[in-house]
Amino acid sequence: MYRIVEATDVGPEVRRIEVEAANVAAHYEAGQFVIVRPTANSERIPLTVAEADDDAGTITLYVQGIGKTTRQLNELETGEALSDVAGPLGKPSEIEDYGTAVVVGGGVGTAIAYPVVKALVAAGNRVIAIIGGRSREFVILESQLTATGAEIIACTDDGSYGRPGFVTEALAEVIESEAVDIVFAAGPVPMMRAVAEVTRPAAIRTIASLNPIMVDGTGMCGGCRVDIGGTTKFACVDGPEFDAHLVDFELLARRNQAYLDFEVLQNAAFDECRAVDS
User: According to CATH, where is 3.40.50.80 located in the chain?
Assistant: First the structure.
């Protein structure tokens, strides 16, 4: 069992969960993830590690409650425990001194972008972090990103905070105004695909952190297979980061919808159980 040190809400249906996982904290690098189960009967879900404290033996996860299991996870409180935390998994981000790096995070994808920003700043880069959400309450981790020393551009789709409009529009403005050496993107599939199209004409190296359906995290189940330049890769062991200009985002989006009907049924059953319990 993995004890929850602290669990707090940071946005609509988004929860910050700090959990004891000393082995993960000791070996984690930016870009890696864990696979967790809230209970022994839960499905396995991949979550990016946003922070790791080797001294305290803890890792921090940001969880958006969308499906049954993430909602179940977000019901856990400080002092309770997760059944399983396996990791760190995946390849670490390729961090070096590139020069000027732009990191784009959309919604809860900002939690994936955050450790990459920290690592890039530590490596000597000038880092511009573009983060966004539908409205003010969906913009997360802004203060933590500011504390890294990165330049922050916060965007909201409805204009309720920061720069009005999409993160891709802010990215285009940055590219037009100065030289950018590399771009990292994490967030919804349509956003990452749009980022790739913004950077493609300028041939700016662009890395996307992919989020396919994943089960075991070891490459055995094949659920997380993605098409990268016509070659099949497994996001859990070959990624999760890939050259965004080579990703078949259309195929990724279709595969991510494979269990949508089942997820709807599971969410409905979850709601029914909660209604009975209340």
Answer: 100-256
CATH fold label, 100-256: Rossmann fold (3.40.50)
E-only strand ranges, 90-167: 100-106, 126-133, 151-156, 163-164
- The answer for residues whose C-beta is within 8 angstroms of residue 135's C-beta and 6 or more apart is 156, 157, 158, 160, 161
**H or E element in which residue 276 lies:** helix 260-277
Within the chain, all domains assigned CATH 2.40.30.10 are found at 2-89
pLDDT in tens, 217-249: 777 888 888 999 999 999 989 999 999 999 999
- In this predicted model, what pLDDT tens digit does every residue of 47-57 receive, in sequence order? 999 999 999 99
For the segment 132-167, what is each residue's pLDDT rounded down to a tens digit?
Answer: 999 999 999 999 999 999 999 999 999 999 999 999
| CATH number assigned to the domain covering 2-89 | 2.40.30.10
